[in-house]
């Protein structure tokens, strides 16, 4: 590990040891790495004898992760905290805007520890433990546990493994490094059942989700000689109807699986004239830059953003942005729906 990374780890350790009454949070529309790192951080603070509250913008995290210890302890920012937080730990979040309503609960910048692995993190914390070369925020936490000398086993191992598995796409993505695999092996030694975790987060969908996937697949269209795949769901998915709106997670991958597609996009309606856009790339094009044009972000191969407008407005704007990266010479062409 690089010297500066060790220095950042030591500063994070001192931050945690010296404080109490921690607010622990992660980005809105939380994913597997964000939620698992949130829960693992809570366990770390508990082992250190600290008071903490875990808060997320969205009222109900994706219930596919309900097997994770501490899942039911996550609360909404719309219910009062029992005390004013003295310090905050923000996980897996490149910008404070991605926190949603939780941002208003944070103490001053100097009292915020920013733990992340996103390349576009804007270093908003008083202390920034941002390691962009690692697979996931859970991998950063693994190093933090080790630096503190806290054993990684049982419930902690389960959370950390889940985050690494999610952000590497089941160890399929290019961020699957030898270190990530070594850590995963260590976590299995700590009691994790890989088959059970993979089954829970990748291989289970509600009946409602399968019906929605069928609807989304019926809209798929291809552009730029098949290099772009675009699909959408023009209905607001109700919260709490079996699994929550995050049951559409992974839909965008269906478009990327098509031979020849380099960039895939999935538009999901979130409210009146508001769409969540999920972007995926095979590697040649950085979708992080495309998402950034709309105030979003992520990684070069996986990113997301929110775009306001009706379906056709959002579709045209997103498609133009993707064409600008994939086939700039055809950016102004008449849409070639196939």
Key terms:
single chain; 338 residues; alpha/beta; 5-stranded parallel beta sheet; 10 helices; 11 strands
Chain-wise SSE layout:
Layout: H1 3-18, E1 22-26, H2 32-47, E2 52-55, E3 87-91, E4 112-116, E5 127-130, H3 137-148, H4 154-167, H5 178-189, H6 194-202, H7 207-217, E6 221-223, E7 228-233, H8 251-256, E8 263-271, E9 274-281, H9 287-292, E10 297-298, E11 302-308, H10 311-326
Helix pairs in contact: 1-3, 2-3, 2-4, 3-4, 4-5, 4-6
The description of the largest β-sheet is: 6 strands, mixed
Supply the CATH architecture of the largest domain.
Alpha-Beta Complex
**What is the CATH homology-level superfamily of the largest domain?**
inorganic pyrophosphatase (n-terminal core)
Strand line-up of the largest beta sheet: 6-7-8-9-11-10
**Roughly what percent helix?**
25-40%
Supply the helix-strand structural class: alpha/beta
Q: Which fold name fills CATH's third level, the topology of the largest domain?
A: inorganic pyrophosphatase (n-terminal core)
Q: Between the first and last Cα atoms, what is the distance in angstroms?
A: 49 Å
